[in-house]
Amino acid sequence: MSLQSLKGSCLCKKVKYEITGELTDVLNCHCSMCRKLHASAFRTRAKIATKDWHTLAGAEYIKLYESSKGEHKSFCSECGSSLFTKFDSAPELLGFPLGTLDDDPKVKATRHVYVGSKAPWYEISDSLPQQIEFD
């Protein structure tokens, strides 16, 4: 957990943002949606308070996609970088993938979730707890 000011940007640098708050519940998600969205074996993400996200540049490039009912993934419409997830059921929180940070968040994942659907070609080799589902 970390209370700090962190800056980040998308791949093309059109969207720039700052997070001024705590990163909580940092985890590695192995669900098929995260794998497809990030074109990777898993997504490392945290929760942040919606009020702590500040778009510094490129707000017009941020687009939303409803990936499942009430869950909206945001991305840069120019380069496709994933930025955050909004939840209709919890508008005060955002799901935040750490991959677009330019600064070191000084946090690490504490667990793996949805390991029941992890990529078959990826071997989890650390000692973090593994959950078949997400609670």
Pairing-aware structural class of the strands and helices?
Answer: mainly beta
Shape: globular
Count of the domains:
1
The chain-level mean pLDDT equals 93
Helicity level, as a percent range?
under 10%
GO molecular function: carbon-sulfur lyase activity; metal ion binding
Domain CENP-V/GFA: 6-123
InterPro entries: CENP-V/GFA (IPR006913), Mss4-like_sf (IPR011057)
Family: Belongs to the Gfa family.
Topology of this protein?
Blueprint: E1 2-9, E2 16-29, H1 32-38, E3 43-49, E4 53-57, E5 62-68, E6 71-76, E7 82-87, E8 93-97, E9 112-113
Parallel strand pairs: 2-9
Antiparallel strand pairs: 1-2, 2-3, 2-4, 3-8, 5-6, 6-7, 7-8
What would you say this structure looks like, in words?
With 135 residues, the protein is mostly beta strands. The protein has a single domain, classed as Metal Binding Protein, Guanine Nucleotide Exchange Factor, Chain A (Beta Complex), CATH 2.170.150. 5% of the residues lie in helices and 44% in strands. The protein contains 1 helix and 9 strands; from the N terminus they run ββαβββββββ. Strand 7 and strand 8 form a beta hairpin. The longest helix is centred in the N-terminal third of the chain and has 7 residues. The mean pLDDT is 93.
